[in-house]
Design a protein that fits this description.
Largest sheet: 2 strands, antiparallel
Oligomer: single chain
Strand content: 5-15%
Radius of gyration: 16 Å
Number of domains: 1
Length: 114
């Protein structure tokens, strides 16, 4: 992403700073449900690389480091400082967000009344 295509304000600069701190690689360490053991405990997906055969190049996301932070409204997540952001590949980001959402979902069914 070039400075010309940065969506708003300095978000392009922040995204670049997060990617630089991550050395251009997804920073997931298993919160997505995968152990990433074969890759030293960290997701191997690099920005501009390929997640698997037959897919296009991956664009990493700058998003909250903590899984619960992935549930923040977009305007609050966008206001976080760099130290609270991590680089995520879309696969790890979506899986971690889904897991966080399930963990905070209220219980349903008959036992929820007791």
């Amino acid at each position: 992403m070039s400075e010309r295509t940065a969506p708003l304000g300095d978000t392009g600069g922040l995204w670049q700073a997060v990617l630089a701190a991550a050395a251009g690689r997804c920073q997931c360490r298993g919160t997505c449900g995968r152990s990433h053991d074969k890759d030293g405990g960290r997701c191997p997906v690099a920005h501009g690389g390929y997640a698997r055969h037959g897919t296009g190049p991956v664009s990493l996301l700058a998003a909250p480091t903590e899984p619960d932070g992935l549930l923040l409204p977009a305007h609050r997540a966008a206001a976080l400082p760099k130290r609270e952001l991590a680089a995520w590949c879309p696969t790890c980001h979506d899986a971690t967000r889904r897991t966080a959402r399930q963990a905070t979902a209220p219980a349903t069914g008959p036992d929820a009344l007791f």
